[in-house]
Specification:
By secondary structure, the chain is mainly beta. Helix content is 8%, strand content 39%. Strand 28 and strand 29 form a beta hairpin.
Length: 1204
């Protein structure tokens, strides 16, 4: 074993005490065709089996989590080889010493860890007493936990009682960490439920009122057996688990401090992991709880106490949370997290486990009720660096992995990206809806004993385990078969570690009813290095340390955290493994030790295992506060359009999403001619829309609500898009508001659009009767332009839907302005489809404004303007074959070629929907009533998306046709609705990505998908500007939809995406901690406006049923802002194209639009950012009538004038 001299490494920290480098063993090549070889007991000597042999009194526990066992890896004898402990229910478990070459020997009795009769559960190695030797903590069910203290490698002695850690109950796992950073290890004991014992049979509990009037169960000990959760109808009693325990290490003994530390919960715990999610140097804790119990993200406040930040940090969590783990899945230097559930991985499994989603006994109400919401699927939390996470499970391909237990991240193929292994299975198929119905029938007829006995002869639910390769770009691919890890078994705990010293990760899995899975990694490709950190003080394993490795190849940043308890009931070896891909060294290694000190090493050669002792007197790490592009202001936080509850599903029970929550929108304009931009915010039915006037206050701008009586008259209408434009040609801006939604029957007056005429002083009156056609369709967008060049502004008004008849096509309107006196609809049925947005824009630079229209369940349509006549040209434009759920559109020259390209918002890739997404609409059940059938393709067959419960509730004939869940789950859509589908209308979506339409210059387009962060949620409002001052147009996207029906759940993974334009038609996502933007609500309208009079564009974001957000721009350092105000009649300014030419010859263009994006209208004053080293030379304006005006740039606030 060669030792590398210390001087061979460059260190930027004080001289290290010791760094030893040992050459790794030569990688073992696979013996078969897969990357991993499964080695049997004959080969390894691991003669372990785990059988179900419970004490009679605990036979019913076969349905619980203690059917599982754990695995922990660690070098207990310090011989350089990783040893192994496996837990089980008959004797605690077995300890195996690693002899090398994947040979192990059972040393359980020899080392003194035999525990006859102990029901062993979670296990972990940790140097609890800080003597440099790993100790073993073993959790137990209905038995005292064990703390086996290592006697210098010669044996172990149980010191749990002496140390205060001999808790007896339902212990799942002990997670160790130095949470108070005092130099020794503390522990969080995760517990589950154990039925009450005889000692409690005479205890009577009572209810008292809590501090906020909520009922509280007393005495407190009874909260470990019964709990209360709030429901829509009051409070519901539920079973609960034992109190978890936080043990603080006080030197000689551990003291339970959970209640005073703020982490005392009584739930069904299944995993607990320490990790520093906010990178402040203090270990935080994620606790995953089963059933109704909430998951908790406990932020360490650094003073011995914790705060549960899950409600504001996580958009939603799994419902039945199981195993979980931490990793930097996108190599951005921040730790991400995955928590698991039991979602079926294919159509059949999903439909068999859904149960009843309707009726009195249904728990579907619970899905959206908690904060955060809880959904029956895995969650992958992507760290934004702000304290708020994106949730991206669907997009990564990791949302549904069946009955999941262990999540284990690790770079299994040594390419630099962390892959994931997932164990699955269960003692019985408890969520099989048909079996559950049979059990319930038995209980009703013969009693609960018969119900329990029903499961005795049922087979275990053996499922394939999963392995996913991290492909980068937030994508994982299923490689279980290719890697040899898709073994069908009932698998619980799992642990990763280098068992043969070759620098890659091997795997051990604890299986129910048989032998463990022992997998040797045969990956020969990929450089690798391992780090064995030795901490100072009594935290010798350096639990809580964070290591950042930087290499020359991509991915260039590799992050690891020294965390023992991970996954389910298990702990990995704390030896840190780094796959380096093709890099032959680590250029830079940054070690943040648990006590806050930082050590930096350079040029660490690949192919070696380094043992690093923590130096003394390290400088503390300093967290750099990055400058953001925006800062959030609360100037409009009082603006909160609040929704009244409306049941969209009463008319159409199989509706995919609600249509009563599609707003609000925003319009920006100077209503009183004072030079400041004011705004209108649309409001839902039952409230009038609001006008806000911008004024000066305390040295900065503020907005004051105006009392406009006429708006209150129309409060019954649901506001959709508002629009400021000069309707009557009198030189001021009037207000048009589209009426939409579904809060009324088709044809009712609440759907009439409204026009309010401006006096010129910001006072509005309703337009005379007859000025508008008076149509009563439910609308969406309004946008204005003088498309026929007759000297007044015309309107396109999009028809959104027919209330109660979705997805039938409504009628859109093309309102031709007759001299400012009245508007005449000349659409003549040309604009069909479910219109969501539209934009007047000159796509082919011929001087005539064309019309682009986005639609749901359709293609983006182009209506080319042939000198005042609109002719559909969608096919020739290259748009006809790309159908989507298009929501929004904005224009800009994103590739710098002088024409306008268009960003289009779509549903994204982070939902349950995949392409092709299908919908059938018609009388499929012969009742004369048209029904909605959502459908999906799987292995060439078409299946219904909705489950038996919801489908049969709408169409009762299905219960007779498919009396069992198996019948329904096995049937194709055509099996279920034979004879009815042929007459139904069919809709198909083949594109879900939001993207960019690259313009050829002639109005012919190429579609290009936006970056991955643009796809994490549906995109609605958008805004375009050069936010970072580099001369290229950027785009902000508002994300999320809280409208989907409860089975789908909220599409809430987004926080708003700011995309940096690269100037060539490509974008790069700017992380939220650098953009300064967190818009995590149901964001809809977006507008640009200068709200603080600094001539830089600020962002306004309108959220459904939540406060409005304002993000003020932070002017880019060294860049200058050039604004160009057009002093001209509105009819000439709207549709004008403004071009700024720089001294370098580069040109920027902007087009003035009135309406577009999503239900929104931005400032009509174009702003140009002049980068460092550049200066603006000239401005040219092509007005909407084709005339040109030019001027030299003489100041940063230019005014270009033109009369009628």
């Amino acid at each position: 074993m060669k030792i590398i001299p210390v001087l061979a490494l460059v260190t930027l920290s004080p001289p290290v005490k010791a760094i030893e480098g040992h050459k790794l063993n030569r990688p073992n090549s696979s013996e078969g065709v897969t990357m991993f070889d499964r080695l049997n007991a004959e080969r390894t000597g691991i003669d372990f089996t785990r059988e179900w042999k419970p004490p009679v009194k605990w036979a019913a526990e076969i349905s619980g989590s203690f059917t599982g066992g754990g695995v922990c890896l660690g070098d207990f004898d310090r011989d350089g080889k990783t040893d192994l402990f496996l837990s089980r229910m008959t004797d605690g478990g077995r300890l195996y010493r690693n002899l090398g070459d994947f040979k192990f020997e059972d040393v359980t009795e020899e080392m003194g860890v035999a525990s006859p009769g102990l029901w062993g559960a979670g296990c972990t190695w940790a140097d609890v007493d800080g003597d440099g030797w790993l100790d073993l903590y073993l959790c137990a069910f209905d038995g005292s936990n064990r703390l086996f203290i290592n006697q210098a490698g010669k044996g172990f002695k149980d010191k749990a009682y002496e140390q205060g850690l001999a808790f007896k109950g339902a212990s799942v796992m002990m997670a160790f960490s130095d949470y108070d950073r005092d130099g020794d290890l503390d522990g969080y004991l995760l517990t589950n439920r154990i039925p009450p014992g005889e000692e409690l049979k005479d205890v009577r509990f009572r209810l008292v009122k809590g501090p906020e009037g909520e009922p509280v169960i007393l005495p407190e000990e009874m909260q470990q057996y019964a709990g209360l959760i709030k429901s829509p109808s009051g409070y519901k009693q539920i079973a609960s688990g034992q109190f978890d325990r936080l043990y603080r290490n006080d030197g000689e003994k551990f003291v339970e401090v959970g209640k005073e530390a703020g982490v005392r919960e009584s739930e069904y715990g299944l995993s607990a992991t320490w990790w520093d999610y906010d990178a402040d140097g203090w270990p935080d804790l994620y606790v995953a709880n089963d059933f109704y119990g909430a998951d908790h993200l406990y932020r360490n406040k650094g003073d011995g106490t914790f705060e549960d930040v899950a409600p504001r940090a996580l958009p939603h969590t799994p419902w039945f949370s199981m195993g979980s783990d931490v990793a930097d899945i996108n190599n951005d230097g921040l730790f991400d997290y995955m928590a698991s559930d039991m979602a079926g991985s294919d159509h059949y499994k999903e439909k068999m486990s859904m149960g009843n989603m309707t009726g009195k006994e249904s728990d579907s109400w619970f899905l959206n009720w908690p904060i955060p919401a809880q959904y029956m699927r895995n969650a992958v939390y992507l760290n934004t660096g702000t304290g708020r996470f994106n949730e991206i499970a669907f997009q990564t391909g990791l949302a549904a992995t069946d009955w999941t237990w262990a999540i284990k991240f690790g770079d299994l193929d040594c390419d630099g990206r962390e892959d994931v292994f997932i164990s699955t299975g269960m003692s019985r198929d408890w969520f099989n809806s048909d079996l559950r119905n049979q059990e319930e029938a038995l209980i009703l007829s013969k009693g609960s004993a018969a119900g329990r006995a029903f499961w005795n002869d049922k087979k275990p639910l053996a499922l394939k385990n999963w392995a996913f390769r991290n492909e980068g770009g937030l994508k994982f691919s299923d490689v279980g078969r290719e890697w040899g890890l898709d073994v069908k078994a009932v698998s619980y705990g799992a642990a990763l570690g280098d068992l043969d010293g070759d620098g890659d990760l091997d795997l051990v899995v604890n299986n129910f009813g048989g032998a463990p899975g022992v997998y040797r990694n045969g990956q020969e490709k990929g450089e690798r290095l391992t780090l064995d950190l030795r901490g100072a003080g009594r935290n010798r394993s350096a639990l809580g340390a964070v290591v950042r490795v930087e290499i020359s190849s991509e991915p260039s940043v590799l992050m690891r955290s020294v965390t023992a308890s991970r996954g389910f009931m298990s702990s990995n070896d704390t030896l840190l493994h780094f796959g380096l891909g093709e890099a032959n060294k680590a250029n830079r290694v940054v070690i943040d030790w648990p006590d806050g000190g930082r050590q930096i090493l350079k040029n660490m050669t690949a192919g070696r295992r380094y043992v690093i002792e923590q130096p003394r007197d390290l400088p503390p790490r300093k967290k750099k506060e990055a400058k953001t592009l925006f800062t959030e202001s609360r100037m409009l936080s009082r603006v909160r359009p609040s929704e009244d509850i409306f049941n969209d599903f009463s008319r159409q029970p199989l509706l995919p999403s609600m249509h009563s929550q599609m707003g609000p929108g925003i319009a920006v304009g100077d209503i009183n001619g004072d030079g400041r931009e004011d705004l209108f915010v649309s409001h839902p039915a039952g409230q009038e829309g609001k006008l806000y006037e911008q004024t000066d206050g305390s040295g900065r701008s503020t907005f004051s609500e105006l009392e406009i009586q006429v708006l209150g008259v129309d409060a019954a209408s649901e506001d959709m898009a508002p629009l400021f434009f000069d309707a009557d040609n009198d030189g001021d801006i009037d207000l048009f508001v589209v009426s939409g939604g579904v809060e009324g029957d088709p044809g009712q007056g609440v759907y009439r659009d409204r026009l309010y005429l401006n006096s010129g002083q910001g006072e509005f009156q309703k337009a005379p009767v007859g000025m508008l056609p008076g149509s009563t369709g439910s609308g969406s967008v309004a946008c204005a332009a003088d498309y026929d060049r007759d000297g007044d502004l015309d309107l396109f008004v999009g028809g959104r839907l027919v209330p109660g008849s979705y997805p039938e096509s409504p009628q859109s309107e093309l309102l031709q302005n007759d001299g400012g006196k009245k508007f005449v609809d000349v659409a003549t049925g040309r604009f069909g489809g479910l219109v969501t947005s539209a934009l007047w824009t000159d796509v082919d630079a011929d001087g005539w404004l064309d019309l682009l229209v986005t639609r749901e369940w359709g293609a983006i349509a182009l209506f080319r303007n042939n000198k005042g006549e609109l002719i559909e040209d969608t096919q020739k434009a290259g748009l006809a074959d790309r159908t989507g759920w298009w929501n929004s559109i904005v224009g800009g020259d994103f590739d710098g070629d002088g024409d306008l390209d268009y960003v289009v918002g779509n549903n994204g890739l982070n939902t349950k929907y995949e392409t092709p997404a299908l919908l059938y609409y018609g009388d499929v059940d012969g009742t004369g009533r048209k029904r909605i059938l959502e459908a999906e393709m799987e292995k060439g067959k078409c299946y219904p998306i909705r489950g038996l419960s919801c489908s049969s509730n709408a169409m009762p004939f299905l219960r007779k046709k498919t009396p069992k869940f198996h019948d329904f789950a096995s049937a194709t859509l055509f099996d279920l609705y034979s004879g009815g589908l042929e007459k139904a209308d069919r809709y198909e979506v083949n594109t879900l990505e939001s993207g960019l339409l690259i313009n050829s210059g002639e109005g012919i387009f190429e579609f290009r998908s936006l970056p991955a962060m643009a796809q994490v949620a549906p995109v609605f409002g958008m805004a375009v500007s050069d936010f970072d001052g580099d001369g290229n147009l950027d785009v902000f996207l508002a994300q999320n939809s809280f409208a989907p029906q409860v089975e789908t759940g909220r599409m809430d993974g987004g926080t708003g995406a700011l995309l940096k334009g690269l100037g060539d038609g490509f974008f790069k996502a700017i992380r939220a901690d650098r953009s300064g933007i967190i818009a995590a609500g149901d964001a809809k309208g977006v507008a640009l406006a200068d709200v603080n009079s600094d001539r830089w564009p600020d962002l306004l974001v309108a959220n459904n049923d939540a406060a409005m957000q304002v993000f003020e721009s932070v002017p880019p350092s060294g860049a200058r802002s050039l604004t160009v105000e057009l002093k001209a009649p509105w009819v000439l300014a709207v549709g004008a194209r403004v071009k700024v030419k720089l001294e370098s010859g580069k040109t920027y263009i902007r087009e003035i639009s009135a309406g577009g994006s999503y239900l929104s209208q931005s400032s009509s004053i174009p702003q140009f950012t002049i980068p460092i080293g550049e200066s603006a030379k000239s401005i040219s304006v092509r007005w909407s009538d084709g005339e040109m005006t030019s001027a030299l740039v003489t100041r940063d606030a230019m005014t270009i004038s033109r009369g009628h």
